[in-house]
């Protein structure tokens, strides 16, 4: 593998670009082209993208139909704001409502952070206009990620992301998630029930009349691929929210559009499990263009139909619902449906997880978790004490995989001392050969550390 970097590009990169989540001076990999689940860097080295960019390139590189949809729309109407309207936004909102089972209105945003900011504003204004003006607090779960703008970051319960930003905005509370491997309640068997009970207890401690909404990822992704052991957790959460008139917001930014082997993560619950608000991004366009969406149940939307100068929703987004982005989303959804991507992920996901689960025999692997094409491998220094693997080990594993042509991630900059989960989320179109390469590479690397 060529380890050099084209000198002019490397110099310009170091001089002009401020990279996300990298320390100054680090020399990043520079991509040149992509095809399917793979990309090639500027030195001609080829890599499998085992994290789909940032969890978003669900359909892989080179989807000509998506590119053509964007081009066609830009030729027809390059830009138009949704303070008025345009056809692609109408068609996409109608499609999303159908996919979600009907009864949803969509407010379009730029991405996931923006979609969640929108949801928080809607929740607070909703309660003010339905006779409960003190309902302002938002509850979220530790290790969950909801965005990097200040409101979304306040809901994000990952302490390392907030250091030096003074992101402690008022009105945001955090509770433990269901996490049987490291149960906050001392009982792995009863972890789901006790996590749900803690939500109810928090509502009661704070006063139900003060709680506007509870936001959660159906499957915590960047925080370590954490999810309940059974679907009962989802039902209990829905019942608790109903009991205290708390809006349930589901952050499906990562888990939406087939990533988990269901079209949406909430569909792992029973048929009665429905949110009040759903936020979407990433896989919505398969990463080909930026777009977010806040989908709101009809009964919530109707609360904004009152009289008065401030009864309507006054939030606005310049690029939210960009015509080309909406056209791209419609084409991405069409491909997902036509190619039966969700069924494919559900089937192949079980196979991949079964193979990765065998790594639990290694001394360095505490637990392997996964659902669909979303996997977390929790590394430890001691299997009995579950002491997390240190940062140097995590970086060494990720680097070793990269040297063998595989890009994987880890839960970086999340919680103090808890960045010990390898993150794997390949494109949903990955071939069986791609997936075999992924499993074999991760397995061979981890065996050298065991």
Automatic annotation (TrEMBL):
E.C. designation(s): 2.6.1.62
Superkingdom as given in the UniProt entry: Bacteria
Keyword annotations from UniProtKB, A to Z: Aminotransferase, Pyridoxal phosphate, Transferase
Key word Transcription present: no
Pfam families cross-referenced by the UniProt entry: Aminotran_3 (PF00202)
GO molecular function, one term: pyridoxal phosphate binding
Protein name: Adenosylmethionine-8-amino-7-oxononanoate aminotransferase
Organism lineage: Bacteria, Bacillati, Bacillota, Bacilli, Bacillales
